[in-house]
Specification:
alpha/beta, five-stranded mixed beta sheet, globular
């Protein structure tokens, strides 16, 4: 049995045809449109394409899972809000199920990625697993014995918006000093801008800065990997904040595994060892307790698709049982 997972993000919608073992059989990508109607069309088109691929191989699609970068209601039937999505209080499950003629499930994208890493990735077998997804901001998921914990209203855990610096850097959420302002792809660019502004030291990043171009996390990571001193200072600060964030996670959840994923995790070799060391120093009871094993994600940008597809498979099987 094959299922389709669609990871609906602010920039693109990525769809994957997934088998029972969590392996991607085929994928398809489309830009995320600006209206709800167009987004419905885009998702339906992706699913139809992959369903045709499955039929050509002599099988059918049994269900569709959607992973969205936005707030999902506790019953996982509708999308209430997504900062970069056109869906607003939309009954997505009912509407897409009717349109596709297939069972459709809905999940937050970080939860879907966490589910995938638990089922077939870096958190396989963990009792309490936390996914920390470092991208534009910070996404997070908590799984206890393989079940996603979502809180009373379906939005837990918002680790990226824990305030770590009172009156610190402004955050799009409306608060100041949120963790993701110091530990994300965006934070790497912000940190580089601040250091280039305050320092006259040579940096390969200065040319972009002097042209008025915003520095990106990717530029900073590439410069650090090439030995740029200023970029390495930015990475060191990022690692320190990640370590403090991991210590907060451990103090609250006491997981046995933490998976660090998201786009920034592609550069984990630059910062993860230092972050883990800071975590070990900052956690409550440092030196007198067992620490979570911190692992880089193994599914990369495919985790949302795979997790959504596996979620659809599991929920449909449970309903039939």
């Amino acid at each position: 049995m094959l299922t389709v997972g669609v990871d609906v993000g602010g920039t693109s919608a990525k769809a994957g045809l997934v088998d029972s073992g969590g392996t991607l059989v085929a994928t398809r990508v489309a830009p995320t449109p600006r209206t709800a109607h167009e987004l419905d069309d885009t998702v339906a088109g992706l699913v139809d394409h992959l369903a045709g691929h499955a039929r050509a191989d002599g099988t059918d699609v049994a269900a569709v899972g959607l992973a969205v970068a936005g707030f999902v209601d506790p019953e996982r039937r509708s999308v209430s809000f997504g900062a970069h999505l056109p869906w607003r209080d939309e009954p997505v499950v009912a509407r897409m199920s009717e349109r596709l003629g297939l069972p459709v499930t809905l999940e937050h994208d970080a939860n879907a990625a966490g589910l995938a890493e638990h089922r077939v990735g870096a958190a396989a077998g963990a009792h309490v697993a936390v996914l920390v997804a470092l991208g534009t901001g910070i996404g997070a998921a908590l799984l206890v014995d393989g079940t996603v914990f979502r809180g009373a209203h379906g939005v837990a855990p918002e680790l990226g918006h824990l305030v770590v610096v009172p009156d610190g850097r402004p955050c799009p959420c409306g608060k100041r000093g949120c963790l993701e302002r110091y530990c994300s792809g965006t934070a790497l660019g912000t940190g580089a801008d601040e250091l280039v502004t305050a320092s006259e030291d040579f940096s390969t990043l200065r040319a972009s800065w002097e042209r008025g171009l915003p520095l990106t996390g990717r530029e900073v990571a590439d410069a650090a990997a090439a030995g740029d001193g200023l970029a390495r200072r930015v990475i060191a600060d990022f690692a320190s904040w990640l370590g403090r964030g991991l210590a907060l996670v451990a103090d609250v959840f006491d997981p046995d595994v933490v998976v660090v994923g998201g786009e920034v995790s592609a550069s984990a070799a630059l910062f993860l060892e230092d972050a883990v060391r800071t975590y070990g120093e900052q956690v409550t009871g440092a030196g007198h307790r067992r620490l979570a094993e911190v692992r880089p994600a193994v599914l990369g940008g495919d985790a949302g698709m795979i997790g959504a597809a596996l979620d659809a498979r599991e929920r449909c099987a449970a309903e039939r049982a």
